[in-house]
Design brief:
Chain B: This is Biotin-dependent enzyme. Chain B: InterPro entries: Biotin_Carboxyl_Carrier/Decarb, Biotin_lipoyl, Single_hybrid_motif. Chain B: It comes from Bradyrhizobium sacchari. The complex is a heterotrimer of chains A (499), B (168) and C (535). In chain A, 37% of the residues lie in helices and 24% in strands. With 499 residues, chain A is of the alpha+beta class. In chain A, strands 14-13-10-11-12-15-22-20 form an eight-stranded antiparallel sheet, sandwiched between helices. In chain A, strand 13 and strand 14 form a beta hairpin. The longest helix of chain A is centred in the middle third of the chain and has 19 residues. Chain A is globular, with a radius of gyration of 25 Å. By secondary structure, chain B is mainly beta. Chain B is 4% helix and 58% strand. Chain B has one helix and 16 strands. In chain B, the strands form three sheets. Chain B has an eight-stranded antiparallel barrel with strand order 1-2-3-4-5-6-7-8. Chain B has a four-stranded antiparallel sheet with strand order 9-16-14-11, with no helix packed on it. In chain B, a hairpin with a 5-residue loop joins strand 4 and strand 5. Chain C folds into three domains: 250 residues, 2-enoyl-CoA Hydratase, Chain A, domain 1 (Alpha-Beta Complex); 214 residues, 2-enoyl-CoA Hydratase, Chain A, domain 1 (Alpha-Beta Complex); 42 residues, no CATH class. In chain C, the strands form two sheets. In chain C, strands 1, 10, 11, 12, 13, 14, 15 and 16 form an eight-stranded mixed sheet that branches. In chain C, strands 2, 3, 4, 5, 6, 7, 8 and 9 form an eight-stranded mixed sheet that branches. Chain C is globular and about 75 Å long. The two termini of chain C are 33 Å apart. Classes of the chains: A alpha+beta (499), B mainly beta (168), C alpha/beta (535). Chains A and B meet through strand 18, helix 13, helix 14, helix 18 and helix 19 of A and strand 1, strand 2, strand 3, strand 4 and strand 5 of B.
């Protein structure tokens, strides 16, 4: 083993309170930093890759697998029992749960993420908006609903249509709704509120200016918790389905330099003002006219963080760990420079041709493309079963190119090589999207998928393809192959001779 | 007999025409020469002089075999029909559960009207101090259970009946 | 091995005349075959399809592995018997591939009198089982027969090689470890019921299949008991109560699929390892056979020209090329299998008989199957030849041929007359398969010789009784003999009587021999040994 010249690891052992690709990704950095990793898993994922990849793995009991991953007390107990000194939450699950962050700290462990108070501040959309507005970060005109719906309708109408109704505590598109005139506003507000109540246990909603065909641009930031903050440029995340991103890239190619600078500066301003500690992402809506508004801040590592890593040449998880251990920001803003272009595609188990409904099934064949410019963040293995227990995202395919055109070409090639067979995935859909002319032109906005639905649908199967596929399928069946090989000579050569 | 396959809801048939000097298959009456093929899941297949890289995987679940085939960045699902299932069609004998031996009912697990899947236990019987679970012979709806818990029966006696679910 | 250099001119007038005539003969043969196979009264076919039954040839096609050969045997059996009422003797027999295994398939033909067995049907079935025994070929019975054809029961029931022999052969096959499967599509009544019962495996179709010793009418007559077909011998009764049959099938299709699965379980005997080389098509086009076979049986032709159009690459290693030249002997390959060929190029003399006997022993020593290509008018007769021992030399050839333990195959290419038929492995000498070409003729002597011989006998009678020799009477004797002969020496009469395993188109000879040789290698060779040769 090579002895690290670094005197002593920042932590001895870190528990990763997550699963799947992100758990494995965090553990890779831990391993590189000479820190032991601890995995948690539910009974059903005892054999999962992340559990085997970790140095230690512990089972958390839970009614459902997701419940196990949300059981803060049990997870902290495991961390204490196994002598871990920090917890990395990944994304999703408990990553933006202030209560969890507080409990971790109370248990004498380090939470690798922001302070609980910052999570609270940014977790509430309304307080986050107000904070942003107070620090000269542009926010969309908005109005919050009080108990009196008719007052809300009046005030909202004054902002002007279209409007977007959102849950104050929400995320992931739940409880969101676009309203185009006064008549439907009242009813939509009631529905949104009850949906928000159901999903988030918090029925508060607000309405804000809805930007037509907006781009979704976000800025990766790092803060030292003492007011020091830097950005690592923006990511373009406009390609979304069911309000969830599926293709992200960095940088946002068509974004004018002046706006890029403005947006990044605004993000740093916000983070510095919040004395934000650790990695975070500030999300913006950018209109076709170049106007941009603060959307929200994600107080965690983002799913799409690899595109930033690929262009900036930085390991964000390592930065998170160093900051959490009390270290300074790993680099100054001047030292941050970007090179080339990176694109990420989220590989999901879903039926892209039928409303993106999640799909389940076994992974019978897994073939992963490999090149120095390809990164495949995953926890997959051939033979594993994809169930409805967790999110349908299977993996992330990331490529780098010297410019967007090269990155796009490389992504198409890599997607064509990436083979996951045995259940439905969105790989073919992603190929069609990335190959699409509008995508190549960079004409991106969050309505891209709905607007191009016709051309993104699969082409009809022509006779040649159909016969090739049928033949390949038949030859894939053992019984059919046996029927070919079982016949010896001279009969095989005589074929269907009759006398 | 030809192999029947379904792609995009359309039925097709494939038949071996000859094996040597190379494989010749007939797909819906169209003859194709397969100059090169392998039984590996990933490989090249040359059909009528046209070489294509192909990956495929067979999933045998829920009583049917589906082959996922990936060609040139496109994935298609082909359902392979079991020729015996196809020939036998709806076999009325599989609608009934008969007692394999004399005994008594220990418990009835399903209600009349309930949907059952093949292999699901419908009743548990006891005979010669041995408990046996009797499973549904097919997917369907339970339309009759002729014995109650504790009741006894003779060998071959009819215990329950199913009816097929409407095909979607 | 050297390629045979053909001396035939394919543009010569002889060639073209022969070609036209032989193509006409083959067309006649194909027409007869087509009638026997496919022409049936509409009413019989409609009854079949109304019962949900397939025609027997459809059943066979579905049973066979797709894209594999089927060598049908005796397709024109009974073609000159029973006024044509029993096409193919109401039974289809052939060698085919099922689940990769070489099998004998034997199917009743329910489109003819309910599949009833005529005397020649029984002969054909017994022969099929003999082939199975000799070659250790598994048998698949496709049962659908009303039983023996009662008006002719005396010709099919009592004798040694009649119906009982079927069941004896079935039992012997099973004892030898050669598998049998019955697919019961229709009724198997009386004796026929023993076919599935004596098979190692049986599948029976629900609704149409039935197996019983006596059907409902017979039971009613015998005991007064009322019963249905299903109760007496239906699929569910036999597969769940009596255990007479093994697998119920929902329909004929499923029965065939189950049958194919069963065959796939069978062990396969190691094939006897004769010398095998990669197969190669003949260098000369087999279609040229039509131009070589003469339009008159009395015209001589060179059998090497025939060999060149049957064997791999037309290559032939001729043995003793300068000795006994009326019998061509040598090694060749057919579909890759090394064989020893004996072919007649004229009457057998002392030297050709000795050469033939010696070559047979060489092939036996070398584990090489023998192929006889017959075109023989007999052994040479006359004082000189008798003094030189033509009879004992012919006997040596017969002894060697009878006792050789390698598989033998005979093709009747043109004529087969007199004792030459014996020396060249005629029907009595247990060729694994004996096939005839449509132009072929067979008899103890040729028609002309017989007519002349009988006329000569008649003239002698007249002379002895002091009568004047009446030329008109002699002419009548000649014509009567010739007419009777003409019918009986034809290949169609032979094949009708099952004196061979079928007529084939000469062009099909190579494939037929390939299937036959391959099948023969399933049986082990017997003990080497001969009787006493008269030197």
């Amino acid at each position: 083993m090579n002895q690290s010249p670094e005197a002593k690891p920042l932590f001895r052992k870190v528990l990763v309170a997550n699963r799947g690709e992100i758990a494995v990704r965090v553990m890779r950095t831990l391993r590189a930093m000479n820190i032991a990793s601890v995995a948690i898993c539910h009974r059903v994922e005892r054999e999962a890759v992340h559990a085997r990849f970790a140095d230690e793995a512990y089972e958390i009991k839970g009614e459902t697998p997701v419940a196990a991953h949300l059981d803060a007390d049990a997870i902290i107990a495991v961390a204490r029992d196994c002598d871990a000194d920090a917890i990395h939450p990944g994304y999703g699950f408990l990553s933006e749960n202030a209560v969890f962050a507080r409990k971790v700290a109370a248990a004498g462990l380090t939470f690798i993420g922001p302070e609980a108070d910052t999570i609270d501040l940014m977790g509430d959309k309304i307080s986050a908006r107000n904070f942003a507005a107070a620090h000269d970060v542009p926010v969309a005109p908005s109005v919050q609903a009080r108990d009196d719906i008719s007052a809300f309708v009046r005030a909202a109408s004054e902002i002007g249509f279209p409007l977007l109704i959102k849950a104050a505590a929400g995320g992931g598109g739940k409880g969101m709704s676009i309203v185009r005139d006064t008549s439907e506003l009242g009813e939509r507000a009631r529905v949104a509120s009850s949906e928000a109540q159901r999903y988030f246990g918090d029925g508060r909603i607000y309405a804000e200016t809805y930007v037509e065909r907006p781009r979704h641009i976000e800025v990766q930031v790092l803060g030292d918790g003492k007011g020091g903050a830097i950005h690592l440029f923006e990511r373009e995340c406009s390609i979304q389905r069911r309000f969830q991103k599926i293709i992200e890239e960095a940088p946002s190619a068509p974004l004018p330099e002046s706006i890029r600078t403005e947006i990044c500066d605004a993000a740093v301003r916000l983070v510095a003002a919040a004395r934000y500690k650790n990695a975070g992402t500030v999300e913006f809506i950018v209109g076709a006219d170049g106007r941009f508004f603060f959307l929200e801040m994600n107080t965690r590592l983002q799913v799409e963080h690899p595109v930033t890593e690929m262009i900036c040449g930085i390991d964000l998880v390592r930065a998170q760990i160093e900051i959490a251990a009390g270290g300074p920001l790993p680099l100054t803003q001047r030292q941050v420079c970007a090179d080339g272009h990176a694109i990420e595609c989220r590989i999901c188990a879903e039926d892209a041709d039928a409303g993106f409904l999640p799909a389940t099934g076994p992974i019978r064949l897994l073939r992963v493309p490999s090149a120095e410019y390809i990164r495949f963040d995953n926890s997959l293995e051939q033979g594993q079963r994809v169930t409805a227990d967790f999110d349908p995202m299977l993996a992330k395919l990331v490529v780098w190119g010297k410019d967007r055109a090269e990155a796009t070409d490389r992504m198409v090639a890599a997607l064509k090589q990436l083979t996951i067979l045995g259940l439905r995935t969105n790989i073919d859909y992603l190929i069609r999207t990335v190959e699409n002319a509008a995508f190549r032109d960079g004409a991106l906005h969050t309505n891209f998928i709905a607007e191009h639905a016709d051309v993104l649908a699969p082409a009809a199967v022509d006779e040649r393809l159909r016969d090739h596929v049928l033949i390949a399928a038949a030859l894939g069946q053992r019984a059919f192959r046996d029927a070919i090989t079982v016949v010896g000579e001279p009969h095989a050569s005589m074929a269907g001779w009759r006398n | 007999m030809p192999l029947h396959l379904t792609l995009d809801g359309q039925k097709h048939s494939i038949e071996i025409v000859r094996r040597k000097p190379h494989l010749v298959l007939r797909v819906d009456g169209r003859t194709h020469e397969i100059l090169e093929w392998s039984d590996e899941p990933v490989g090249s297949i040359t059909i009528d002089g046209d070489a294509t890289a192909i990956a495929r995987a067979l999933v045998d679940e829920g009583g049917r075999e589906t082959c996922f085939v990936r060609v040139a960045g496109r994935t298609l699902e082909v359902v392979l029909t079991d020729p015996r299932e196809e020939s036998a069609g709806h076999d009325a004998t599989r609608d009934e559960i008969h007692a394999p031996m004399p005994g008594a009912i220990v418990s009835v697990h399903k209600l009349v009207g309930e949907q059952v899947t093949r292999g699901e236990t419908v009743v548990t019987i006891e005979s010669m101090k041995l408990q046996t679970a009797l499973a549904a012979p097919r997917d369907g709806r339970l339309i009759d259970v002729l014995k109650k818990s504790g009741e006894s029966f003779d060998k071959d006696e009819l215990l329950a009946r199913l009816e097929p679910m409407d095909e979607a | 091995m050297r390629k045979i250099q053909s001396m035939i001119s394919t543009s010569g007038t002889d060639f073209r005349r022969n070609d036209a005539r032989n193509r006409e003969l083959v067309a006649q043969f194909r027409a007869k075959q087509d009638r026997a196979r496919h022409v049936r009264p509409k009413r019989d076919l409609e009854r079949l399809s109304s019962q949900g039954k397939m025609r027997p040839r459809e059943r066979i096609e579905k049973l066979l592995d797709p894209g594999t050969p089927f060598l049908e045997l005796s397709s024109l059996a009974a073609n000159m018997a029973y006024e044509g009422e029993s096409p193919s003797a109401s039974s289809i027999v052939g060698i085919g591939i099922v689940s990769g295994r070489e099998t004998i398939i034997r199917a009743d033909d329910p489109t003819v009198k309910g599949g009833a067995w005529y005397p020649l049907s029984v002969k054909k079935i017994v022969r099929a089982l003999d082939i199975a025994i000799e070659n250790r070929l598994p048998v698949i019975h496709l049962c659908d027969s009303a039983g023996g054809f009662l008006p002719l029961q005396s010709e099919l029931f009592p004798d040694r090689h009649m119906a009982g022999r079927i069941f004896r052969n079935q039992s012997i096959l099973s004892k030898m470890g050669v598998k049998q499967l019955s697919l019961v599509f229709g009724h198997c009544t009386a004796g026929g019921a023993y076919i599935p019962a004596l098979s190692d495996y049986s599948v029976i179709v629900r609704g149409t299949g039935a197996v019983f010793l006596g059907g409902p009418p017979l039971v009613k007559a015998a005991t007064g008991e009322e019963s249905t077909v299903e109760e007496l011998g239906g699929a569910d009764m036999h597969t769940s109560v009596s255990g007479t049959c093994d697998y119920p099938a929902a329909n004929e299709n499923e029965a065939i699929l189950i049958g194919r699965e069963i065959v796939a379980q069978w062990d396969q005997a190691q094939k006897w390892p004769i010398q095998r080389d990669p197969p190669e098509a003949p260098a000369y086009d087999p279609q040229e056979l039509y131009g070589i076979l003469p339009d008159d049986i009395k015209k001589q032709f060179d059998m090497r020209e025939i060999i060149a159009r049957i064997v791999d690459g037309s290559r032939f290693h001729e043995y003793q090329p300068n000795y006994g030249s009326t019998l061509v002997c040598g090694y060749a390959n057919i579909w890759g299998f090394k064989v020893g060929i004996l072919a007649n190029n004229g009457v057998l003399f002392n030297d050709s008989s000795l050469k033939g006997g010696h070559f047979i022993e060489l092939c036996d020593q070398n584990n090489t199957p023998l192929v006889f290509l017959q075109n023989i008018t007999g052994y040479m007769i006359g004082r000189d030849y008798e003094r030189r021992g033509i009879t004992k030399d012919g006997a040596k050839m017969i002894m060697a041929q009878s006792c050789a333990r390698v598989p033998k195959f005979t093709v009747m290419c043109n004529g087969s007359f007199g004792a030459g038929n014996y020396g060249m492995c005629g029907r009595a000498f247990d060729a694994r398969l004996l096939l005839a070409w449509p132009n072929h003729q067979i008899g103890v002597m040729g028609g002309d010789q017989a007519a002349n011989t009988l006329a000569e006998v008649k003239a002698n009678q007249m002379r002895r009784s002091g009568e004047p020799v009446d030329q008109a009477t002699l002419a009548r004797v000649r014509t009567e003999t010739l007419t009777a002969y003409q019918e009986q020496i034809s290949a169609y009469y032979s094949t009708s009587e099952l004196w061979d395993d079928g007529i084939i188109d000469p062009v099909d000879t190579r494939n037929a021999l390939g299937v036959a040789i391959s099948a023969s290698l399933n049986a082990p060779l017997g003990q080497k040994g001969y009787g006493v040769f008269r030197f």
